């Protein structure tokens, strides 16, 4: 059985949990990094699985890997779900483009304000850094809004793909953070559209920011 290692409140762990729901994959979730000293991310047993000391990690019948977006691609490909992760190069590249945008552009913008305003994390109390990050976050959400205006459905077109899992959870975080948000109608409609998905309700819009 697939073992997903990582606390279920982690946004990156929730990506994998949501996809497993879509794929109907039986799994167990071992909550490494949840504050229990026996499951600390710097424990030798965990470092042996992921030297980066980050979640999630999966163990799929002895095949161990880390990096949430790579895990999404692996699981969809091995379960032959071309609807979620297309085989045709151009269609697949479009999904990859938005998954990578989420990791390289969108995530760095929201990390500081989220940790400051929601998590109250030590070291994230610089108001100027919050303001600058929020400004960049708004700019990127405007990019997403334009794309959703174009598709009028999901990120890559009329059908739900892996890109919607990666970006959809970040959209939930946008609405869960106490900031002043511009009126991005397409993003708001997309959020409600995702909320019709049982997996998103269970692992995204479930009360966890």
UniProtKB/TrEMBL annotation:
Keyword Transferase: yes
Key words, A-Z: Transferase
Pfam families, per database record: GST_C_2, GST_N_2
Record domain GST N-terminal: where: 1-83
Domain GST C-terminal: 88-209
Classification via SUPFAM superfamilies: GST C-terminal domain-like, Thioredoxin-like
A GO MF label: transferase activity
UniProt xrefs under PANTHER family: DISULFIDE-BOND OXIDOREDUCTASE YFCG (PTHR44051:SF19), GLUTATHIONE S-TRANSFERASE-RELATED (PTHR44051)
Family recorded in the similarity comment: Belongs to the GST superfamily.
Protein name: Glutathione S-transferase
Organism: Pandoraea apista
């Amino acid at each position: 059985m697939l073992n997903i290692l990582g606390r279920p409140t982690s946004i990156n762990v929730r990506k994998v949990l949501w996809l497993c729901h879509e794929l109907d994959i039986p799994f167990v979730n071992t909550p490494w990094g949840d504050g229990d000293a026996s499951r600390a991310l710097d424990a030798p047993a965990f470092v042996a699985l992921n030297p980066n000391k980050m979640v999630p990690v999966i163990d799929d019948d002895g095949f161990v890997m880390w990096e949430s977006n790579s895990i999404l691609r692996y699981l969809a490909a091995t379960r032959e779900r071309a609807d979620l992760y297309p085989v045709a190069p151009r269609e697949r590249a479009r999904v990859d483009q938005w998954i990578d945008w989420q990791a390289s552009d969108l995530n760095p913008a929201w990390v500081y304000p989220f940790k400051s305003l929601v998590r109250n994390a030590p070291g994230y109390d610089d108001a100027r850094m919050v303001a600058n990050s929020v400004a960049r976050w708004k700019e990127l959400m405007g990019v997403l809004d334009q794309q959703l205006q174009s598709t009028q459905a999901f990120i890559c077109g009329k059908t739900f793909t892996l890109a919607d899992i990666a970006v959809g959870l970040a959209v939930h975080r946008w609405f869960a953070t106490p900031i002043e948000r511009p009126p991005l109608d397409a993003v708001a409609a997309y959020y409600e559209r995702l909320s019709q998905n049982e997996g998103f309700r269970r692992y995204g819009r479930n009360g966890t920011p």
